[in-house]
């Protein structure tokens, strides 16, 4: 039997199966396009609850493939607060899970909503880029304390949408963020 014939047979089979599988295929397509919800808890960061929520709202207004929702039970992303000479940081898988720490001293020096939104950016998959301008959220403390921007720029928005295009399925480029200095 020729290879060409075998392929033709396979195509015919696929065509025959298509009507039966149409419902499933359609559902899968909808699932891929659907927004993925990441639940976060502010229970351990009561001082910063409003700025955490403001930062999350900034992200929710900026991206379409992932949505942050506050829910203290069963949250994959937890915010905590305290004093740490290293400052604020994110310990996360870069895909919606982990812990974000907000440092009291740093939050008095820098805009706390920018800190919260920046650390949340790590949980959504973005790396630090301290040399960037204030308009870039992931430049963190780089532009100095006078920078109060807490909204991701167009490049950051596009990158997060790209990283969440497959929902909770991790991107192969996924990085783990450990202690991060300067936010
Ligand atoms: Zn950072």
TrEMBL record:
**From what superkingdom does this record's organism come?**
Bacteria
What is the protein's name according to its record?
A: Extracellular small neutral protease
Q: Which keywords does this Swiss-Prot/TrEMBL entry list?
A: Calcium, Hydrolase, Metal-binding, Metalloprotease, Protease, Signal, Zinc
Identify the EC number(s).
3.4.24.77
Query: Which chain regions cross the lipid bilayer?
Result: none
Residues bound to Ca(2+)? 113
The Swiss-Prot or TrEMBL record describes its family as follows: Belongs to the peptidase M7 family.
This enzyme catalyses: Hydrolyzes proteins with a preference for Tyr or Phe in the P1' position. Has no action on amino-acid p-nitroanilides
Taxonomic source organism: Amycolatopsis rifamycinica
> For this UniProt entry, what's an example GO CC term?
extracellular region
**Biological process according to GO:** proteolysis
Which positions in this protein are listed as binding Zn(2+)?
Answer: 118, 122, 128
């Amino acid at each position: 039997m020729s290879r060409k014939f075998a392929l033709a047979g396979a195509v015919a089979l696929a065509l025959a199966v298509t009507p039966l599988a149409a419902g499933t295929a359609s559902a899968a397509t909808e699932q891929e396009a659907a927004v993925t919800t990441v639940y976060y808890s502010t229970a351990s960061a009561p001082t910063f609850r409003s700025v955490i929520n403001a930062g999350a709202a900034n992200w929710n207004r900026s991206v379409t493939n992932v949505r942050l929702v506050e829910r203290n039970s069963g949250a994959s992303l937890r915010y905590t607060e305290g004093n740490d000479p290293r400052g604020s940081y994110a310990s996360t898988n870069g895909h919606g899970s982990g812990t974000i720490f907000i440092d009291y001293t740093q939050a008095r020096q820098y805009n706390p909503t920018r800190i919260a939104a920046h650390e949340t950016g790590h949980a959504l998959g973005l790396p630090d880029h301290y040399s960037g301008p204030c308009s870039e959220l992931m430049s963190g403390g780089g532009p100095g304390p006078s920078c109060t921007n807490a909204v991701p720029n167009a490049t950051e928005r596009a990158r997060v949408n790209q990283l969440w295009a497959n929902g909770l399925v991790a991107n192969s480029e996924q990085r783990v963020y450990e202690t991060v200095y300067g936010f």
